[in-house]
Give the backbone structure.
Amino acid sequence: MRFKDKVVMVTGGAAGIGRVTAEAFAQEGAKLAICDVNPEAGEAAAKALGPEASFQKVDVSNETAVAEWVGQVAARYGRIDVLVNNAGITRDALLLRMKESDWDLVMAINLKGAFLCTKAVVRVMAQQRAGRIVNVASVVGVVGNVGQANYVASKAGLIGLTKTVAREFAARGVTVNAVAPGFIETQMTAVLSDKVKELFLAQIPLGRAGSPADVAAAVTFLASDQAAYLTGQVIHVSGGMYM
């Protein structure tokens, strides 16, 4: 019960890696506040997380919506111990075919969203002089990937944001780290063709795709007291895809 009575916020917590991560925190005693743009899935997830869990429909790229959500969470629970910036989308296309609107949308959710949530939450954490922020990046943010210029740029930017905020708030007792998942079996990857999946698996030394639980284990570790001396780090959960 590493997170007994700790208040944990997870963006994009209604499904996939976000929901499994929220469940992992709840199983160790945390009080969960999750947000998502899917209200039906979000309400169902919050109900499954226990009586003290809460859900709010939030567009993380909207500063007003983020500020209201963070304010509500701080008022309800009295503190914020952990923020997991997990919300993310893809709009894949080769560079010459990529629409400007798809570039802007991916950057707004994946990178600006993390910036806005971090900015709002870190004020609370700095006053507490304690807190953990974990950003869900991606292995492609380090190695690149064909057809994902927008997504890769957003995740590379998220890694840079991680390191900068870690430096700015270390003196206030706030650690900021990231996990970089590789090929993980989620709804996002389920739509890929068998050929694309085979190409990914060929790059993984362990020879298999990862699961959301693999990522959740790394996130909860970074949010725990066991990782108190880690900040500004990126843990790759990729089966050796990146070394």
About this structure: The longest helix spans residues 100-128.
